[in-house]
Amino acid sequence: MSDFIRDKTAIAGIGLSQFGRGLEESQLQLGLVAFKDALDDAGLAREDVDGLSIHLGWPLGVDYDRIAEVFGLDIRYVNQSWLHGRFVTTALQHAALAVAAGMADCVACITAISFTRLRGFLGGPEDQEGTREEGGTHGEAPAYGLTAPASGAAMAMQRYMARYGATSEQLAEVAITFRKHAALNPRAVMRHPLTLADHQAARMVVDPLRLYDCCLITDAAACILVTSTERARDLNARPVTIAGMQGIRSGREEFIFAPRGLGLNQQTTGTPGARARDLEVYRAANIDRDAVDGLYTYDAFAPLVLFTLERFGFAGPGEAADWIQGGRIGLGGELPMNTSGGLLSEAHVAGWNSIAEMVRQLRGSAGASQIEGASVLQWGTAWGDSVILRN
Amino acid sequence: MTDTAYAKPLPRVTPDNAPFFEGLKAGELRLPRCADCGRFHYPPGPVCPYCFGQALEWAATGGRGAVSSWVVVHKAWFPAFEAEIPYNVVQVELDEGPRLTANMVDAAPGDLAVGLIVVAVADEVTPERYLLRFRRAD
Q1: What is the distance between the alpha carbons of residues B30 and A221, in angstroms, rounded to a whole number?
Q2: CB–CB contact A143 B131 (8 Å)
Q3: Contact A95, A226 (CB under 8 A)
Q4: Which of A125, A145, A330, A386 has most Cβ atoms within 10 angstroms of its Cβ?
């Protein structure tokens, strides 16, 4: 990627609704709270927003056209992608690309979801998408009783355990660490301490994944406003610039819930590790990986944290389960991850909760969770896409 | 039993995958093979994903492979599967290369292991529909 995009766009505002389970508010109501909160944060008016970038539409969330007509927006750029949390990165990237290309001045990424009311879509008879021929996108095979995103993450983790000797006790470090982060965050849904004994005593969901290896099912909304860095400098908050980006990887060597080479679905089995083309995001931002002060990822399932660390070469193939032990991914550790608690303990806002946390960190306003001197943070996922933010 | 009396989900049959299910009905595990490069592949489609050739044929595999991963489902997502909890789902790497997902029959959770050698079984779930399963090879 050229310097076409580097630091040209910025996150100028973040807004959040309350996070909870069984909330009575509609997605539109939650989304409105987040949208107004983001406008106030940035010091922008509704009329300043001329773009929408959305990935969780109806029925889990709200479609762009309904948001535009209900909120009274006048929109000239829209991106709405496949209804999956995974497209959080794509939605943010499209916002930046549209602003950089002059197709919009200010793009609102609005995610407003009621998972608890619509949990039937997350697996089982109501999940039509999982019935795709030859398997759903997460590896669902409903004829065999395999459904819900957890199925593919479990299948990947079982093979990872068999190949590398990783254990459920090691994996527990992810949930325990993120719960500690959530304990510092008043907005987090799950804040009581989680011990290894609690983790091991919890019920199996899909062996080898136990309850606390799987993310929360919550209701929540988040809004991120993207505009040009030049414009953001005149607004309320210190601009957090989008320094570099790389996209989702796909192909026979890819499965969203596995590192390359694990041997899931049609992947070959090997130990390729992170290759140059997997690390484009650092070149795009013109930094070394060592410059990253914290890593944020889509922790729908605890194994995805391991796979992300291997994707981006923080740990070698098969080494992440060892690598994360001893506080390494906790606040104060070598590479703090998901410092607001993530999807595992804060709330499932499809990763936008973590992107809002990255912005707070880079403004120096993360309170008790602040990473001292945070200046470069990376969003990166198990499916290989990434955005680097800096202040 | 008719299809409508079978309570569990059935795979969608499409122009791309119909020969797979016809194969099961004939007692064979058939997969698409490329006449140009000779390789089997999965999922089925109009072109060989390896050499991009379109001279495809459906051919019988040996039906033999090794468990490459497995899970045990403990949550009752489907009412129709509830009585079987906990039940297994395996991914099997066939000797010919492709990996397929199915259940293993006659296997307790403790029997499941990566590398276990298995063979394909065609399971008649309705008079018209067959599902792929695997059982231990020994």
Answers
A1: 47
A2: yes
A3: yes
A4: A386
Is A177 part of any domain? no
Report whether A381 contacts A86 (CB < 8 A). yes
CB A355 within 8 A of CB A88: yes
Instruction: List all residues 6 or more positions away from A338 whose beta carbon is below 8 Å from its beta carbon.
Output: A178, A181, A296, A297, A299, A305, A344, A346, A354, A357
Taking residues A73-95, what's their average pLDDT?
Answer: 97
Q: What residues of chain B lie within 8 A of the CB of A156, using their CB?
A: 69
Query: Are B101 and A158 contacting, i.e. CB atoms less than 8 angstroms apart?
Result: no
Do residue A266 and residue B98 have CB atoms under 8 angstroms apart?
yes
Q: What is the CATH number of the domain that holds A24?
A: 3.40.47.10
Q: For A202-227, write each residue's pLDDT tens digit.
A: 999 999 999 999 999 999 999 999 99
Tokens found for residue A284:
């795009």
**Nearest residue, CB atoms, A142 vs list B9, B17, B49:** B9
Q: What is the CA radius of gyration of chain B?
A: 16
Q: In whole angstroms, give the CA distance from residue A357 to residue A202.
A: 29
Whether B87 contacts chain A with CB within 8 A: yes
Residue A169 φ then ψ, to 5°: -65, -40
Indicate left, alpha or beta for A173 from its phi (over 0: left) and psi (-120 to 50: alpha).
alpha
Q: CATH top-level class for B11-136?
A: mainly beta
Q: Where are the domains of chain B?
A: 11-136
A140 domain-assigned = no
ipTM, 2 decimals?
A: 0.96
Distance, CA of A223 to CA of A42 (rounded, Å): 11
Mean pLDDT for B107-116 is 92
Q: Which residues pair with B33 in a beta bridge?
A: B40, B57
B65: β partners? B94, B118
User: Which distant-in-sequence residues (6+ apart) come within 8 Å of A24 by Cβ?
Assistant: none
The model carries a pTM of 0.97
Q: In this complex, is the C-beta atom of A145 within 8 Å of any C-beta atom belonging to chain B? A: yes
* pLDDT tens column, A354-377: 999 999 999 999 999 999 999 999
Q: How far apart are CA A103 and CA A99, in angstroms?
A: 6
Residue A3 — pLDDT band, cuts 50, 70, 90? confident
Are A16 and A40 a contacting pair, CB within 8 Å? no
d(CA A8, CA A242): 7
